[in-house]
Amino acid sequence: MTFCGYLPHSVPPMVVEHEISLTFTSSPSPRYSQVYDSIQTPRVPSSGIPIEIVLTILEAAYFDDRGSPDVDLLSKCALVCKAWSLHAQKLLFRRVRLCSHSAFASFTHAVDRSSPRGQILGEAVIQMRAVLDYNQPGCLNQSSLAVAVANCPNLYELDLAQYGCVAAGKDVVGSPAQERMRRPAPSFDEHSLALLNAGPRITALSFSNWSENNLSVLQLLEVWPSLKSLSITGTSPVLSPDVTYTPFPCALEELRLNCQREPAKEFLGWLLGRSAEEKSLRVIDLERQPSPELLDFLVEKHGETLHSLAIPSFASHEHAHAAMRCRSLRELRTESSCSSPVIFRQMPEVIQHLAFGLDPDTLLNPIIDLVKTRDDLQAVTVNLWRDGHRHPQLACLQMACAYRGVDLRLTRDVRRMRLLVRGDPVVPPTYPRTQTLESMQPAVRSVFVA
Q1: Backbone angles phi, psi at 369, to 5 degrees
Q2: Predicted confidence (pLDDT) per residue in 238-249, tens digit
Q3: Structure confidence at residue 5 (pLDDT)
Q4: Which terminus of the chain, N or C, has fewer Cβ atoms within 10 Å?
Q5: Do you know which InterPro entries this protein is assigned to (predicted)?
Q6: In this structure, what DSSP letter does residue 79 have?
Q7: How far apart, in whole angstroms, are the C-alpha atoms of residue 71 and residue 91?
């Protein structure tokens, strides 16, 4: 059949042979030559690309796909030329990680405040992650940590992990977490606490305690009355019944808990007393499923002004009812694919971001109705669990979000979902939260462009 086969009774075409002679000339048409010569090709100024443009490009490329600083890119940019070097190094030093004494020695040499460059790099540090692992040879110790913090006057966030020490041959890999945490770790000595007290007034503290020492976190909380964001992981803090504690002075705006055992109400009442008085708490993120009693306790004290609530599951009636009492919620997050449908039907009109898990059995009708009826909704984040992409109503959710102008973010990796929704430890004006270079301390931006 020919290419005309769709026509009835078509016949094969006749083939006719021709002899053709072609002559090519190399001279271009004057008209095209004039047009080509008139095109102005872009040229780099003799003084180089303006440093403001370079800095804007570096800041835009600061985060990699995992939400971490692109150290490889920034390191290479620091070697391009002298004009780029200091600006790229400032971005490199914005977030530092200290896990050993050798790393501390290199860091203190780089931020030595006796030199102009060292002073600039020390002032560029905004976030610091440090690990006190007493099982490792050459580990970072408490006094070195205090010195490192003191060298960073603009430090905003300290992320500290502490691991207890165990006798040789006693640590069994794969043993339950509770048993592995039964190892001692020293409390902070007076000299280290004095250095920390004299250092910067940090605003965000994340403390992961993998030891049996539950006094360390209380010591750190006394150091910084400026805290607004607090994250506690690992060993649950405990207030000693034999000690009279002064009221905790911080009015927290964000609290994140991921403790092996649920914190006692006595500790939370002491920790959040000032926050309840000033109605300052805006974000509660519980990474382990709380008991109905604990969630009810937190909502009763802070639900009136709470903007963001996150727990693993809202499947039970008690957890759903507690969330429904928070009438100022801008954000509701859960990773479970099974949530009580009534919670979505009762979301406040000001809701801006919703995050949940999806599998073939998830009820999507209440969520689709929420997308259609909440004018302030900005984004919906969905983690697709087993065969979640085959949900028969997923297309309806996509169409509803597209029609309403809501950003629908789909992921198959729960770690990616957490990265998308957590953002920086700063309470934002709108949700969802993001990671930006300006959000944590806008006043420090002058350091980068100086």
Answers
A1: -65, -35
A2: 898 888 889 999
A3: 41
A4: N
A5: LRR_dom_sf (IPR032675)
A6: T
A7: 9
Inter-residue contact 239 to 270 (CB < 8 Å) = yes
Please, are residues 287 and 312 in contact by the beta-carbon 8 Å criterion? yes
**Amino acid letter, residue 133:** D
Non-local CB neighbours of 208 within 8 Å, separated by 6+ positions = 159, 160, 161, 162, 233, 234
Question: What's the CA gap between 81 and 58, in Å, rounded?
Answer: 14
Distance CA(164)–CA(133), nearest Å, equals 7
Q: Residue 205: how many CB atoms within 10 A of its CB?
A: 23
Q: What residues does 209 pair with on adjacent strands?
A: 162, 234
Closest to 408 (Cα-Cα) out of 429, 434, 432, 375: 432
DSSP at 432? S
Mean per-residue pLDDT for 155-184? Answer: 71
Residue with tokens 């087993």: 386
- One-letter amino acid at 292 equals P
Structure tokens at 165: 């020490």
Q: Which residues pair with 286 in a beta bridge?
A: 257
Could you list the beta-strand ranges (E) of 134-176.
157-163
Residue 85: burial class (beta carbons within 10 Å; 0-12, 13-18, 19+): middle
Q: Which of 292, 285, 426, 406 is nearest to 353 (CA)?
A: 406
**Helix boundaries (H) for 125-225:** 142-150, 177-180, 190-198, 216-223
Q: How far apart are CA 450 and CA 445, in angstroms?
A: 9
Q: Which of 330, 400, 413, 318 is closest to 365 using CA atoms?
A: 400
Tokens representing residue 228 in the block: 């607004």
Quick: pLDDT tens for 304-360: 999 999 999 999 999 999 999 999 999 999 999 999 999 999 999 999 999 999 999
Q: Residue 1: is its pLDDT beyond 50?
A: no
Residue ranges of domains in the chain? 50-165+183-227, 252-329, 339-436
Among 443, 438, 409, CA closest to 424: 438
What's the rounded Cα separation, in Å, for the pair 390 and 388? 5
CATH topology of domain 50-165+183-227: 3.80.10
Instruction: Calculate helix-pair angle for 82-92, 116-124, nearest 10 degrees.
Output: 40
Work out the average pLDDT over 122-146. Answer: 92
**Beta-ladder partners of 67:** none
Distance CA 272, CA 361 (A): 38
In sequence order, the 6+-apart residues with CB closer than 8 A to the CB of 67 are: 419, 435
